Request: fold
Amino acid sequence: MADKKLVEEITSMEEDFAQWYTDVVKKADLMSYSSVKGCMIFKPAGYALWENIQHELDKRFKATGVENVYLPMFIPESLLEKEKDHVEGFAPEVAWVTHGGLEPLQERMCVRPTSETLFCDFYKGEIQSYRDLPKVYNQWCSVVRWEKETRPFLRSREFLWQEGHTAHATAEDAEARTQQMLNVYADFLEDFLAIPVIKGRKTDKEKFAGAEATYTIEALMHDGKALQSGTSHNFGDGFARAFGIQYTDKDNTLKYVHQTSWGMTTRLIGALIMVHGDNSGLVLPPKIAPTQVMIVPIMQRKEGVLDKANELLGRLSKVARAKLDSTDKSPGFKFAEQEMRGIPLRVEMGPRDIEANQAVIVRRDTGEKITVSLDDIESKVSELLETIQKDMLERARAHRDAHTTVATNYEEFKDAVNNKPGFIKAMWCGDRACEDKIKEDTTATSRCMPFNQEHLSDVCVCCGKKATKMVYWGKAY
Amino acid sequence: MADKKLVEEITSMEEDFAQWYTDVVKKADLMSYSSVKGCMIFKPAGYALWENIQHELDKRFKATGVENVYLPMFIPESLLEKEKDHVEGFAPEVAWVTHGGLEPLQERMCVRPTSETLFCDFYKGEIQSYRDLPKVYNQWCSVVRWEKETRPFLRSREFLWQEGHTAHATAEDAEARTQQMLNVYADFLEDFLAIPVIKGRKTDKEKFAGAEATYTIEALMHDGKALQSGTSHNFGDGFARAFGIQYTDKDNTLKYVHQTSWGMTTRLIGALIMVHGDNSGLVLPPKIAPTQVMIVPIMQRKEGVLDKANELLGRLSKVARAKLDSTDKSPGFKFAEQEMRGIPLRVEMGPRDIEANQAVIVRRDTGEKITVSLDDIESKVSELLETIQKDMLERARAHRDAHTTVATNYEEFKDAVNNKPGFIKAMWCGDRACEDKIKEDTTATSRCMPFNQEHLSDVCVCCGKKATKMVYWGKAY
Reply:
């Protein structure tokens, strides 16, 4: 049976989550490996997810005054080196271009791993007066980081992302923009991807190379590991001082600008898969699903069935992104394929349904079958898509809450890491030494100091000294 | 006067067209030079043009069944070398990556100058059966070609483009797709950018490295030079043989696929500027203009003027992409800025207009001033935008036709090159030697063998032997 084969080839997530993930990205036709080690190919089904993410995020960015630009993909070595922490963070993992055509370059250049240095160099020429501020620019592009170990969507040597880079007159304006964009990210994940997140600040150990503060949104995957899903950095005036970006203020004095940057990447596609997927494959929230409804005719060779299916397609296309699978595959194979690809709703309709003026709608997220009258099937489909979007967020939230453990001492902490996959909430003294020890002992890292602080105990879960912060910890992708 | 200054700094196009171009791209705030030699920065006003091009073209592509993908930006040297003509064409102008992080690569890789070889490598794994065909994929990305001389938008070491790559079962299918995409390009230029084009085939000398046939659309700039604005290539089975891309046909025999590729780039922005611009700056066709209407209030500090202008903005925003310039600049400066940026319509409204229930609309393309009643200003604005789009295409077509010369002998040909800037239509024997001689003698190149052939004379304009084709010639960007 072809239909069974398609599903049987997926490892179950309980058996081997990593293998399940690899199986799903391949079987749902999202990606392909390439001849370039560590770089992947986004196939149409995978790229369509990124297009939808891009379209929606871009709209939300523009609503906050963001303008798009495009800067070169190369960074001369001397430019990369201008900010000390930044170059230390990135130099070990960049790809170097040494020749242009047949000749060696006078100065080698790296392919951008991120573009802070290019934006600083650009802003230096663009900003003279307070009238030139703020600059709120973003670019959609690919970046390269020479990772040793790679996994589709989660970590690859080249990935797609957006990077926003802003310059402001005051520290307050920069901080406000940093937080504003983190909120845009969080709302986008919850509303569009149905992924609930924890918002917070990274510890100094985990912050971005060159940043004064890094804010993050952290999501919990089905296997209990955390995924950093978007970050927003406040640079203060550090880069401005390194690059000499100054403006004349209203009071006629020369001041340094304050800068931010913020980014989201194609790893969001990995998050989608690992938060919502199941043992039949991908499960897509309706808002991002390139196809929301797949109509599968039953006994399609019987006279009138395909005509009726086409008529239904016309009607449903007015309320949803609908498709009709009229290929000569068996219905069972079509069902398995639609499930594998995570299409939110399947509509089955055969001769007997037509006679009874009805169709059977099957929810991808729950498997629930609903027989509906053809008379008002449009409104039923619209309603179900909204319900699924809401239910998926609620289920993901319930899963996360059920996989969040409070630890008040180190024994509880270690027990949680070993036996309760998920987030661990625990108090921390603020010392890097405790973070290092926890990572060494358990492989768990600090995910963030959440904005919503709770007082779980008075002392650090690791050293027992006075606690200063409640921290989310976890194993992470 | 600040307003005059903005304009005075533009060189007139009659005086020095190249300098006029450079002035416009800078003054209209489209781009900025970067620290990376030969690479440019797309500023918001420039990138917005590309976004609009991308959005519209992508919609037209998808209507013909194109699916978007994303392939790596790197090509291993051994992969680039697989197709002989192709590597010869591109190897001299690629950027080479030799180090990843701190270590030298085992095999160096170039940054893609174009992705035929990557798509072939990809398709080899994806295509087994006739059921897998056709593949009609496209990607939006940046590419790198290590040019010696660069000019903003027209020729830079990195540029943005789309590249479509398709694989088909038969030679006929490949040829049909090659022509279909050329037509998509031509329609897009005429309809959206208001740029008329000549459709035709490139001579063997001018065709793409590795192609069996290259089709092109050629546009004429205001200075009489030609700009190749989009190309579509039929590869036959040449790449398929070099890469071993075969499929099992219905008759159970193994066959090579037939392939095409087609691309358009950010040089279209250069075309827009050079076809429509004037001595006051950019002139944008309404369909592509990011802002279509700029409202400039007169005596805006007078009570009620800004309120009324905001009310008008609300109304016009329903029918067009409208903005209100309520900054504290003088109206004259605002006019000059709106003209420089090529915004199709300006709406001026001061206290006396308000009293008379009217506003003054000024067309950017003609300078014509039209006093209209506020009662039906929306419909007047819609109508004018349509008229401008149509008129701009007609004017560009008239300019091209007035700058197309027929040459029936070599004296006429040389006279035309020297004294009549524009296209030259002339017969050709088909020999490469004549093309070479014409280029050496005059710097003019064959632009294309148009699909609409005319019989101008019996003999080749250069050698006097029997002519086989009518060719468009010209100096080109």
